[in-house]
Amino acid sequence: MNNLLIIESPNKIHTISKFLDDKEFKIIATIGHIRDLPTNSLGFDEKTLTPKWIVPSKKTNKISKDKIINEIKAAAKNAKKIFLATDPDREGEAISWHVYNVLPSSDQLKCSRITFNEITKVAIQHAISNPRELDIKWVESQFARRILDRLVGYKISKILRNMVHGKSAGRVQSIALKLIYDRENEINLFKPTKWWTVDPIIDKNNKLFLREIDQKIKDKINAIQFSNEKEGSGVNFNDFNSAELLKKQLSNEWKIYSIDDPKYYTVKPKDPYKTSTLQQDGVNKLGWSVSKVMSVAQKLYEGVKIDNEYAALISYPRTDSVRISETFANNVEKFIIKTYGNDYFFKFVYLNKKNEKNVQNAHEAVRIIDPFITPESIKSKIKPEEFALYQLIWSRTIAAFMTPAKYETTIVRVINNGNKFYTYSRVLKFLGYKKVYSDKDEIHQVPIFSKDSIGSKIKIQSILIKEHSTLPPPRFSQATLIKELDGLGIGRPSTYKSMVNMPLQRGYAELTDKNYHILPLGIEVVNFLKMYFSFLLDTNFTNEVETDLDNIADGKLSWKNLVKEMQPIIEKCINDAKKNFKLKSMNVGRDCPLCKSPLIYRYSHKNGTQFIGCSSFPKCKYVEFPNNKNETLSYVCPNCGNKLILRKSKFNRYFVGCSNYPKCKFIMNTTSKQIKQICECLENNQPLPDFEIVNSLNRKENAKKDKQKG
Question: What pTM, to 2 d.p., does this model score?
């Protein structure tokens, strides 16, 4: 063994080892960071800002970091060259720096840094042939990020827990929570506006749009004329009576008075994926969570097993870039021309825009590695979720280099008693990139009228007066929250997943029908931060910090200077909070019906919802949840004789369990329909339904035993 290759993920080893001689190279994975800041303290000297790096303690069922370090040291001693090949981003640079620093000085001389954006033979051999030194500026940028996050996460989170029972506050996660909070307020304050339209129906798919009201009745009607690119043009009525008056003026004679010449327009394909847009499409098109999107993407990057061999299918999935290398673009050109013909190829150079902030230009877009590996060719050889995401990335990558789609639009103009209407057709004339990538795009098609139809009459099935109402802004989904954060320039490809998950994990919000709903604890936390730590919720401040981190990476700013600027700001805010904040009384003002101790307000550790509990907990486990006056039921536990209680699981679902938990672990076997009946009875103070009290755990155990018996 002459060379040592250090990578992050052990899952890459199978794929990389195909391209390297195992007699020449030994590959060791760090499995993430080998050193980190301690979790039980601030983790750095507040005066000198020197980080206190430690080797993390061994986690259950995980390989000890000490063991990994010892393995690296032992292998380094015998190696002629050491290639630090951790991920091609600032965090990867920092991990390589830590590996370098645990080695003795004699072995440090053997080290060089290499990066590759994809796990292919060409990319790896090119990286090994072009090593470089560690980029200490990138490492320092990562230091600044970690220490700033620790300043906020450790100091502000501590005071947050003490004062409003929140779990944590983060430099970027707080912005995500604030966006959810603001959207909830917008929805609550929203006042709908109503309007009416008169819609003559041609058939089930087509209708006429009112363009102009006859001058004879125009003064009698309260209406608004509008015209814009998004909505077209037309007339909206401010009240039903005005719409009704117009309808009464219409006769049965509808005449085509003009047909415009067809107009053509093109729609260009979208840019190749970057992390944020991949996550958005993964949520919207595949119905996945952001965590699942990134988990499957990581597998496609590291390599999946195809025909008993591991092969990497996509490039590095954590990137804020849409840049495409010239070499790959040439391969795509060959594929498109060979598969679809010259008419479908469109030469375009995908580069990052100069005015885009905070883009790490060293990265490429999230793209496929080989255009000739089509999704269908490997569908039966990989897992369904791997196929689904690969198909999404493959089609988006190929489409980016295809001809724009071409549409034909024709407007048909109709008149009735001086009132002018129109309808239109929009027909896809040339597929272009849509041959491989589909958007949600409605094609409005009406009967085709030739120029000879001018002056002819058409038949209308009915005339409807429709009431419309403006809708409140929609709640954020994971996809739209990422889109909003990305648009504001907040966060990084590696942080989007944690940013959208943190409000859920901390119990500040919940997902209902895939949309965020802020919880009482989340409202408390945002209000507290607004009052004393408003800079954390300022999108401009957060964006400026990202720019400063980029400047550190570019050598334009000292990382310690950035941290020193932040320290007094945070300390002042903490002192103000300690001086001025008054703890709210947690007392409900009544006694527990079971033990007569005072009832107090509590927050769930699992989902953040506020509930009422007994102050004598854990001796007394009486609880009342939101929207239910008394969750203690009249049902009796068949195992121990205590009352049964309606509880919520960590997945935010109701179930009926014993009030004597954890001594008694009885869980009543109920259906969702039965749970709904129980909740309705409690809400309306009605007697509970007479259900059979059966232990669902026993049923599961018995079913398992029956299955084993055959």
Answer: 0.81
